[in-house]
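Bumping my old thread because nobody answered last time. Still need a sequence for this structure:
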């Protein structure tokens, strides 16, 4: 009894929704002796990938998804910023470590000659900054490749069209002969 109730509630919840499928853009339709084809450009994904490879965000602009380009620029710009910052800080600590190893005064030594950062602290800072610099570089490369792939996939998926011919619209119909005991069923109508 509980299972029947759950199935009935599930079917009632499906009533207001329609499900749409994609229309194959390669199909040729014959209508009243006219042959029409949807536009399909097989080079569109290649162009989008090429534009993204030349200029990050170019493929997104080619696909007319203008809002994605600033996201790409911000993501790649952030990884470049962190790479440059970590690289500059690494160079500062590396130079200080080399000067201190030779017995010279470095930027982390105060006017009295007392070090503000220990030698082991300089070594540890170099190790951490090198790791962060390398991770920033890896992140930038991954984001660059990801935006190329995203532009290509988006260009490919933009060529698919949705059509009402492939629609599932559940509906509840009553049988006039059995009004006191309603039946629930599912009907699929399809045509080629």
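Sorry it took so long. Here it is:
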């Amino acid at each position: 009894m509980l299972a029947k109730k759950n199935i009935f509630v599930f079917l009632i919840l499906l009533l207001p929704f329609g499900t749409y499928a994609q229309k194959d853009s390669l199909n040729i339709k014959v209508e009243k002796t006219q042959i029409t084809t949807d536009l399909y450009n097989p080079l569109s994904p290649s162009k989008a990938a090429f534009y993204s490879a030349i200029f990050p965000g170019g493929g997104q602009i080619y696909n007319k998804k203008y809002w994605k380009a600033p996201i790409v620029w911000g993501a790649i710009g952030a990884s470049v910023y962190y790479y440059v910052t970590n690289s500059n800080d690494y160079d500062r600590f590396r130079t200080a470590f080399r000067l201190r190893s030779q017995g010279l005064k470095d930027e982390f030594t105060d006017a009295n000659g007392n070090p503000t950062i220990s030698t082991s602290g300089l070594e540890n800072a170099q190790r951490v900054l090198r790791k962060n610099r390398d991770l920033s570089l890896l992140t930038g490369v991954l984001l660059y490749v990801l935006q190329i792939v995203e532009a290509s996939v988006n260009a490919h998926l933009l060529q698919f069209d949705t059509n009402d011919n492939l629609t599932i619209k559940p509906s509840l119909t009553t049988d006039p002969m059995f009004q006191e005991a309603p039946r629930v069923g599912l009907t699929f109508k399809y045509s080629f």
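The helical segments are 2-14, 44-54, 58-62, 68-101, 119-157. Let me know if any region looks off to you.
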